[in-house]
Amino acid sequence: MGSQEVSTVDWQGKHVTVAGLGVSGIPAARALHERGALVTVVNDGDDERARAQAAELEALGITVRLGDGATLPPSTELVVTAPGWQPDKPLFLAAAEAGVPVWGDVELAWRLRGDNGRKAAPWLAVTGTNGKTTTVRMLASILEAAGLRTAAVGNIGVSLLDAVLGETEYDVLAVELSSYQLHWAPSLRAHSAAVLNLAPDHLDWHGSMEAYAADKGRVYEGNTVACVYNVADPATEDLVREADVEEGCRAIGFTLGAPGPSQLGVVDGILVDRAFVANRQKQAQELAEVSDVDPPAPHNIANALAAAALARAFGVEPAAVRDGLRAFRPDAHRIEHVADVGEVAYVDDSKATNTHATEASLAAYDSIVWIAGGLAKGATFDELVIGAAKRLRGVVLMGADRALIHEALTRHAPEVPVVDLDRTDTGAMSEAVARAAELARPGDTVLLAPACASMDMFTNYNKRGEAFADAVRARADESA
User: What is the model's pLDDT at position 1?
Assistant: First the structure.
């Protein structure tokens, strides 16, 4: 299916099973029911919230089965799943055995775009282990600066179904896609797409690094204009080579160094384009200054270059790239400067929930007291510690799997002082900040970049970041 084609499905009387209530399942069930499908929603949970959601759907005439997400309902012709459900669940094995296709919410949105009779907006898609949300929001800011009607949607929290079926008629969508979503999106064909980086993550879901990378690489399938890859991460370029794209689609690299032809990069503090210019062999187009990017940390400059590449692939002028980057403000808990206390900077990067994100965060500062720990999700920390050892003034560890980081520090940075907090209650963050302050010297950065998930101690990474910021501000108030 070509990128501009819109799929038409006769939903009337079609038996569709929707797997999972929640942010994707409920809109999917409603959209399918409105189109005449006979919808059954299955859900593992049977708690008070699920029962309330089920009651709302049942009032519309939708069948809901709570506490049984494993059995494939009779007569099912299609399964539409929430992205987090693992591929080896019995429901999907039964669907495969019965020859029933499985779509994710992204696939459904792709099939339904243009269903309301309006022209379907093209998608500029972003995936990668880290940096997706920031890059997509940068991209949306650039597109808005170019005067285009757009939205940052997908895994970023705004439902793609709501975007494609809502009242607003968009010119183009900036779409964040997770590996889960891409796994269940076989016919997605973006205008242009970027894979920012690849590092081990969610391997318990995908089963192997190879399967994880293959799902990320699906974002390039059928691209019409540009496949954007990271020059510093050859695995992303390998995915471009393996992709089946439309004739004329180009491979466009981004690099923190000087760009070659068909690349975007950095020269003397300037973001430049040698891909979308008339004579890319000899010419480069200035797009923005490094100082236009907030914050100007190396990995965030890479995010900006990827966003710029996708915008330029869509025909956006250089001035809009600059204006969009200047207007962009990062989300909370992403290398967020909280305060300076006693000539020490305190930075919240609670969103750094894996080693790859933390590696980028640690690389942004010269002398660091590092606060880390939580749920390791099967990660190892040797390479991270080896790369960061020279920057570490000290380390404060907390959380369920802190011993794994401590062991890596003992092996590779034995001279670095380590404070091991033997507690996993939420109040541990205040002590962590206090102990970090004792280790820090003027000019240092106390950096919360846990390299782990938060759920052993906090509801999510936002709550962890808020606890850090609260502790820092309390310290600032005391010293004022």
Answer: 38
